[in-house]
Design brief:
- The complex is a heterotetramer.
- Chain A has a 5-stranded parallel beta sheet with strand order 10-7-6-18-29. In chain A, strands 20-27-21-22-23 form a 5-stranded parallel beta sheet.
- By secondary structure, chain A is an alpha/beta fold.
- In chain A, helix 12 crosses helix 13.
- Chain A folds into 5 domains: about 130 residues, 3-Layer(aba) Sandwich (Rossmann fold), CATH 3.40.50.960; about 170 residues, FAD/NAD(P)-binding domain, CATH 3.50.50.60; about 60 residues, no CATH class; about 170 residues, FAD/NAD(P)-binding domain; about 70 residues, Alpha-Beta Plaits (2-Layer Sandwich).
- Chain A is about 25% helix and about 25% strand.
- Chain B has 2 domains: about 140 residues, no CATH class; about 110 residues, no CATH class.
- Chain B contains 9 helices and 6 strands; from the N terminus they run H-E-E-E-H-E-H-E-E-H-H-H-H-H-H.
- In chain B, strands 1, 2, 3, 4, 5 and 6 form a 6-stranded mixed beta sheet that branches.
- In chain D, strands 2-1-3-4 form a 4-stranded parallel beta sheet, with helices on both faces.
- Chain D is an alpha/beta fold.
- Chain D has one domain: Rossmann fold (3-Layer(aba) Sandwich), CATH 3.40.50.960.
- Classes of the chains: A alpha/beta, B alpha/beta, C mainly alpha, D alpha/beta.
- Chains in contact: A-B, A-C, A-D, B-D.
Chain lengths: ~675, ~290, ~190, ~170
């Protein structure tokens, strides 16, 4: 038989003014199972908590109801007090008669009636509470970082410097990400590679970082503290242990006309290649789609070209190398897969994007995107840092930048702002004016969003001191006449259409998450928005956590981010990971689902609705060891306690602890006439 | 029919299966049959009186078949949806059953009827049914009639009810549901109701009062409708077996309409197609939410 | 970093913004079109070009559009715009510079009546060291001002002695002449 | 006065049971409290972790127990603390609502809303709207009348001692 104690708090005047607290305590005395019901001015005070503890000891309470403020306020306080008196803390619940009653009603009579109702529902709930124990799970104190751009590099270094091992997985042949492609960085105009490459080398040399470049995450199993990750190490066709990075192989490769990904198609590379001189690891990779030997093999012809293998003094070229799968145990995962630009070319239909035919991207050679401009401006780029237009290699004297291409455009692109374009366009105009002294840069913009330290000053400098012409308005159409690009726009400040000529046009295209982010997110059971950006657990208060415990997010895979943002997020994930790794075991609230094995029919509706992949299949065997039934099992380490499974279960064979059907039923009964 | 019998005989004599589940002629019309010998295959029939959904025999709640070993089942196109549902919901492994599809042009309502299959006698669920054969089947036999296009009487009744004021609908359903004796035949016959222990039998807490009175009846039929939402294969068995003649098909059909209109979903005979309840789209309509 | 000289187009005439910057020492590119100047301008409701419009047109090298507009000439030079500007743009000084450019006559002319008024006004000051209203009226109307406007009010104004018939020169006419000479000399310099 | 009956000074006061999620609507209702937003006192909140946890059975049971109206409220789309509980609830209750309508229950009695943790004002409006609407619809005696006595149900005559009484065992 339940022995419930009810403690009604006046909260000074806060509750007492509109609720007859003594009356509530008296009314609750008549509820079956209530053996103790009192009111007090401040239940959360030390004497108030002592009242609870004393009553538990003296009256042998089996449950505690504190009618006071919101459980979000003081549930922890009173559960601690309850535990202090030797009663299981989960036998204590709060009835919210302040936020949900005294503060929102003026009529004392009505408020008192409601307070009694509220308290009675919780009394009925607590009668059906059972003791629960905090869940303790062991933690593997190693982290996986997915993505080797600046965010991934920063996260890996911070975690490794914090004393924990890190596996860094990078899809491409080298780490460095988009930042390695940039010329200078806003708002300081320091050289991107100069600040990045030391960090890349640090990653490579760090004793606690294991770098898997040219690798991808194949599958992820497990849960917070206990992930098992399979990584596909794609075949480079080069033996990493033998290669000394001399580069002789790339010199002799006959196929030299392959558009370089690193140079955004503006430069060329060979079929066996190192993407850029500072690549880490400094290993060549054979592009099997472009290598003559592999192209011949695909057609069933014998191997002819082996020039790279012949040139290699170390015998490191291995045309028969296969992909390898390696498995790693980790306790936490940082997702830092970065971004791609809205490509205005032919691959749009796949993504349901309509593209921008009106700008002639892909047909007019001198219409390029922001990253291509970075490569033109970069000293390591295809033009050695000279601004030369792709069509005829001439220096453009009139250059036009279009902002918000694909951004803030729900019709053809993304409704969001890509955040970095205002700044990098301002930077581009400066780089251009520094390099082409008699040139004129013009920018079409909608707003200038320069929110960041030194950002507004930077963009004003581009206009006020460096002479960039800013025209507010979007461009309607561009076409080519001779070697001139005609631009039709509108100057909304002057209220007039504008027709102007340009020698080159740079489109500041929208930032989008990397292709394949959805597949990765599904492997990780983390949610992503309609654009594919990974959802954070809370936009304000948990910005680098995902809703899946133990998985964190950094950089532009979460939303458009610039370098300072990405680095700050990465360091934040590192602090979260190191916090998680501070103890060998981690503790979780026991609000998790639990399957009634006798009743479960094994329909796995629960599995379908579980957003966390917490439901597993469990074999029920007879004495001979034959599987007689397969039923659901909820892994308490993974379950987050939403209870969707229970509402979905047709036979109610899964129960959410702390919110069982019995408890809810009790509450509904209590409200009955 | 010869084709069906020959196939069944072959499967049994070759030992591919230990039993064939189909229909035979019984004293009161067509009835389900378990055939375990090659000779027995000659008793198998299939015609417009074979209304029973045999898929419910595959449900793990009915272990009879399982004890016989591997079985073959004769399958109407509509029954294929039920089998697909059981596969989808992990109740039977696909490789544990051989499916003999029969081409179908509609059935009548009562297996004991001698009436021919006509526009007047055809079961309401067959009106407008586009499926002449089940895609899930391993073998497909027979020939199909053209099917029936005529207007569905249930759909008309649903429209009529929808047009009436809420009090009229309430009165209609109260008068129907008060007849329910809670025999649970609707549950027993339903191929998609396979829980070992039904919610209606649970006592802690008792969401659904078990004795036959208006309140418990309401709760039961609401629960049943919700559990079948997006899962009901419209085999019509619940309504056929109801001893009180409650038009249960109206409820399941109504829910199927809702699911079809809101989520563009029709019960599929492809086990890989997920049911609409248990999945979602971020842009699902939510006009009813403030 | 000081003002960074840009002459982007060597072949064509000097851009207006550069010209204004040379005349005023102010950078028209500093205007970020917040409109606070026009919000405070007492003449904003009367003109088609408000101070921020003028700033924008200077930055965009739109001499043509500025030449057609009345705003420059209706400006009272009260300098509210300048005192309000958050970015130190000084629209009042900019408009002064533009008036100078147009008054010079090469890039378009001020509206006839306004020009006549300005000239008459300055002539009065040049000749008398102060304003001689009757002289101003005569000179303005003969120079192109609206001939018969306000004529009907003249008798009553005269009757109450509000309009002197003869000019009164100030004492320091020599100084006035020297000021005008100095200005003319400065203007003559390239 | 029976403390569990809402005050009935001058007319019918509806009893409304609200099933709300812990993270958005419950917190939004907390915010309404801390902001001292005054609202009708007819609503009793039952806190659940997520709208995904809310079973249609809760609603039928609440009606059986005498509720005149129901509110179900949770996180806006894409805001669910548990990623997708609200999406599952949205489908479940879209169907449930149509079923109720088909069975003749006035859907004005069942309110669904998304109220975020920052929408204290919206919660007040949802509460006041629901109370006004249900007050206009009157007491939900139709459902409460569904009693255990088969004679009463068959004849439609409900013995007064049965009205609103618990089912005898």
């Amino acid at each position: 038989m339940a022995r419930i104690g009810v403690f009604v708090c006046h909260c000074g005047e806060n509750i007492g003014r509109t609720v007859d607290c003594h009356g509530v305590a008296e009314a609750c005395k008549d509820v079956p199972g209530v053996v103790h019901s009192v009111d007090y001015k401040y239940m959360c005070s030390d004497p108030g908590q002592q009242m609870v503890k004393n009553a538990i000891a003296e009256k042998g309470l089996t449950g505690v109801v504190v009618a006071a403020c919101s459980p979000h306020m003081h549930e922890k306080t009173f559960r601690r007090a309850t535990a202090g008196a030797g009663l299981n803390p989960f036998l204590c619940e709060m009835a919210n008669v302040r936020e949900h009653c005294s503060w929102i009603h003026e009529d004392r009579e009505k408020a008192t009636v409601k307070a009694v109702d509220i308290t009675k529902t919780i009394i009925e709930k607590v009668k059906r509470n059972v003791p629960l124990n905090t869940i303790r799970i062991p933690v593997t104190r190693r982290a996986l970082v997915i993505g080797g751009g600046i965010a991934g590099i920063q996260a890996a270094l911070d975690i490794a410097d914090g004393g924990r091992e890190v596996i860094l997985v990078e899809k491409g042949p080298s780490i460095g990400g988009h930042m390695s492609q940039l010329s200078e960085t806003f708002p300081t105009l320091d050289c991107s590679q100069c600040i990045l490459t030391p960090r890349m080398v640090e990653v490579y040399q760090h004793p606690r970082i294991k770098l898997y470049a040219y690798s991808e995450v194949e599958s992820v199993e497990g849960y917070i503290g206990n992930f098992k990750v399979t990584v596909r190490r794609k075949a480079r066709s080069v033996d990493e242990d033998k290669c000394n990075g001399c580069g002789a192989c790339t010199q002799v490769c006959p196929n030299k006309k392959i558009p370089s990904e690193f140079d955004c198609g503006l430069g060329k590379r060979t079929a066996i290649y190192v993407p850029f001189p500072q690549a880490v690891p400094n290993l060549p990779t054979v592009d099997r789609n472009k290598c003559l030997l592999f192209m011949n093999r695909a057609k069933g012809r014998p191997d002819t070209c082996k020039k790279c293998a012949d040139a290699c003094a170390k015998g490191a070229i291995d045309f028969d190398q296969q992909d390898r799968l390696v498995t790693e145990d980790v306790g936490a995962i940082v997702v830092a897969t970065g971004y791609q630009l809205y490509t205005i070319g032919k691959d749009q239909p796949k993504d349901n994007l309509k593209g921008y035919g009106e700008y002639g991207y892909g047909t007019i050679p001198d219409v390029i995107d922001g990253l291509q401009f970075e490569r033109l401006a970069s000293a390591s780029g295809p033009t050695s840092g000279k601004i030369l237009r792709p069509s005829d290699g001439k220096e453009p004297k009139r250059i036009v930048f279009l902002q918000c291409i694909g951004s803030r455009d729900p019709q053809k692109g993304m409704e969001y702002c890509s955040k970095i374009c205002c700044m990098y366009v301002a930077k581009h105009t400066m780089l251009y004016h520094h390099k082409v002294h008699d040139g004129q840069a013009t920018v079409f913009y909608m707003d200038i969003r320069a929110a960041g330290k030194g950002y507004e000053e930077f963009s004003r400098r581009a206009i006020e001191e460096e002479g960039a012409q800013y025209i507010r308005g979007r461009v309607s159409r561009m076409w080519r006449e001779g070697d001139v690009i005609k631009i039709l726009g509108f100057d909304t400040l002057e209220g007039e259409p504008i027709e102007m000529d340009a020698d080159m046009v740079v489109l500041a295209t929208a930032m989008r998450p990397q292709p394949g982010i959805d597949a990765l997110a599904q492997k990780l059971s983390v949610s992503y928005d309609q654009h594919g950006f990974i959802n954070e657990a809370h936009p304000k208060l948990r910005p680098v956590e995902t809703n899946t415990a133990g998985i964190f997010v950094a950089g532009a895979c979460q939303a458009p981010r610039d370098i300072p943002d990405a680095v700050a997020m990465a360091s934040a994930t590192a602090s979260k990971v190191l916090g998680l790794f501070a103890n060998e075991m981690l503790e979780r609230e026991p609000t998790v689902a639990c399957v009634n094995e006798a009743n479960c029919a094994g329909c796995f509706h629960c599995e379908r609705v579980c957003a966390y992949g917490a439901v597993e299949h469990k074999d029920i065997k007879d004495r001979a060891g034959n599987v007689v039934r397969v039923i659901a099992y909820v892994n308490p380490g993974v379950c987050q306690g939403c209870g969707t499974c229970q509402a979905t279960c047709p036979s109610k064979s899964v129960e959410l602890q702390g919110f069982t059907d019995e408890q809810i039923w009790g509450e509904i009964q209590a409200l009955g006439v | 029919m010869t084709e069906l019998r020959e196939l069944a005989r072959r499967l049994l004599s070759e030992g591919t299966v230990n039993a064939v589940l189909g229909w035979e002629e019984g004293p009161r019309g067509a009835r389900p049959a378990f055939v375990t010998t090659p000779e027995g295959a000659d008793t198998l029939i299939f015609d417009h009186r074979c209304v029973h959904n045999l898929a419910s025999y595959l449900s793990p709640r009915r272990p009879h078949l399982k004890r016989l070993g591997k079985v073959a089942m004769v399958l109407k196109p509509c029954d294929a949806r039920a089998v697909a549902g059981l596969i989808r919901e992990t109740q039977i492994p696909r490789d544990k059953v051989v499916l003999i599809g029969v081409r179908c042009g509609g059935v009548i309502t009562d297996p004991d009827s001698t009436a021919p299959l006509t526009e007047a006698t055809v079961a309401d669920r067959c009106r407008g049914c586009p499926d002449r054969e089940g895609h899930l089947a391993d073998h497909t036999v027979g020939t199909a009639g053209p099917g029936f296009a005529g207007p569905s009487k249930r759909a008309q009744k649903i429209e009529e009810l929808a047009a009436a004021p809420a009090e009229k609908r309430w009165a209609f359903w109260q008068s129907e549901l008060e007849k329910c004796v809670r025999c649970h035949a609707c549950r027993q016959v339903c191929p998609m109701c396979y829980c070992d222990r039904c919610l209606a039998d649970k006592t802690q807490p008792r969401w659904i009062e078990s004795s036959p009175h208006a309140r418990g009846n309401m709760a039961w039929h609401v629960a049943r409708a919700m559990h079948l939402a997006g899962r009901c294969v419209d085999c019509g068995e619940c309504e056929r077996v109801c001893p009180e003649g409650i038009p249960l098909g109206l409820i399941t059909r109504k829910i199927a309409q809702v699911v079809s209109e809101r989520y563009d979903f029709r019960p599929s005979d492809d086990p890989a197609v997920p049911a609409p309840v248990g999945t979602y789209r971020m842009d699902d309509p939510q006009e009813f939410i403030l | 970093m000081g003002s960074h000289e840009h002459s982007h187009d060597h072949s064509g005439p000097e851009p207006l913004a550069a010209r204004v910057q040379r005349m005023t020492g102010l950078n028209p590119a500093c205007c970020y079109q917040c409109g606070k100047c026009s919000a405070g301008c007492p003449m904003a409701a009367e003109t088609t070009l408000r101070p921020h419009d003028v700033m924008r047109l200077v930055a965009r090298n739109r001499l043509d559009k500025l030449a057609d507009a009345d705003g420059l000439w209706l400006c009272l030079t009260c300098e509210t715009c300048t005192s309000r500007c958050p970015n130190g743009c000084d629209p009042a000084r900019t408009m002064d510079a533009l008036r100078e450019i147009f008054a010079a006559g090469k890039d378009g002319k001020p509206p006839k009546a306004i020009s006549a008024f300005h000239k008459s006004f300055l002539n009065q000051v040049r000749n008398h060291g102060r304003l001689f209203e009757m002289g101003l009226i005569m000179s303005y109307k003969l120079g192109g001002g609206p001939m018969f406007a306000d004529v009907t009010t003249t008798p009553s104004v005269l009757a109450r002695g509000k309009l002197g018939l003869a000019p009164h020169n100030v004492k320091g006419m020599d100084e006035v002449r020297r000021i005008f000479a100095a200005c003319a000399e400065e203007e003559a310099q390239p | 006065m029976d403390a569990t009956t809402p005050a009935v000074a001058g007319g019918f006061e509806p009893r409304i049971t609200a099933f709300v999620c812990n993270w958005c609507t419950y917190t939004g209702a907390d915010l309404a409290g801390t902001s001292r937003l005054q609202m009708a006192s007819n609503v009793r909140i039952i806190r659940l972790p997520c709208t995904g946890r809310i079973d249609p059975m809760f609603i039928t049971k609440a009606f059986e127990r005498g509720a005149d109206g129901i509110i179900v409220s949770g996180c806006h789309p894409a805001d669910c603390h548990y990623n997708a509980g609200n999406y599952h609830a949205r489908r479940r209750f879209a169907i449930f609502r149509e079923l109720m309508d088909f069975l003749g229950v006035d859907t004005g009695r069942i309110t669904f809303s998304w109220v975020s943790a920052s929408e204290g004002g919206k919660w007040r409006d949802v509460v006041n709207d629901a109370v006004t609407r249900v007050r206009a619809l009157g007491p939900f005696t139709d459902y409460r009348k569904l009693v255990v006595d088969p004679v009463a149900t068959a004849t439609g005559v409900v013995p007064p001692e049965h009205v609103g009484k618990e089912v005898p065992a």
